Amino acid sequence: MAITTLAGLRSARKHRLVHLQNTPTGATQGLQCGFKEALASPDQNGVGPALAVLDGMVPVSNSPGYLNLPVPAGSNKLYLSRVEYTSQLTTQHRFEMFDCLFVSGEHSTNGTVTNTYTSPPTSWQSRVPNYDNLEIWIEVCIGTAGVAGPDLTGSTAIVVDYKDADGVTQATPSFLIPNLDAGMAYQLPLQAGTKGVSELLGYNSSGGTSATAKINVRLMNPLAGQSYPALPQATSGAMPMDFLQTGLVEVHPDAALFFYAASSTSARSYEILLELAEG
Amino acid sequence: MTIASIDDWISAARQIIDYTKTVSKTVSGGNISSYFEVAGAPGAGTLAGSSTTGVVPVDTDAGFPKITNFASGAIGYLSRFSAFGSVSGRLILFDRLWVGGTYAFNSGTTVVAANGDATPLNRVPDNDWSLVEAYFELVTATTGTQTLSLVYTDQDGVSRTSPTVSASASSTVGRLYRVPLFAGGRGIQKVESVVVTGGTAGTWNVILVRRLAEVRIAGGNYGDTYDMFKVGMPRVYDTSALFCASQADSTTGGIIDAKIEIASK
Question: Which of A133, A197, A243 to mutate to test the interface with B (most CBs of B within 10 A)?
Answer without folding.
Answer: A133
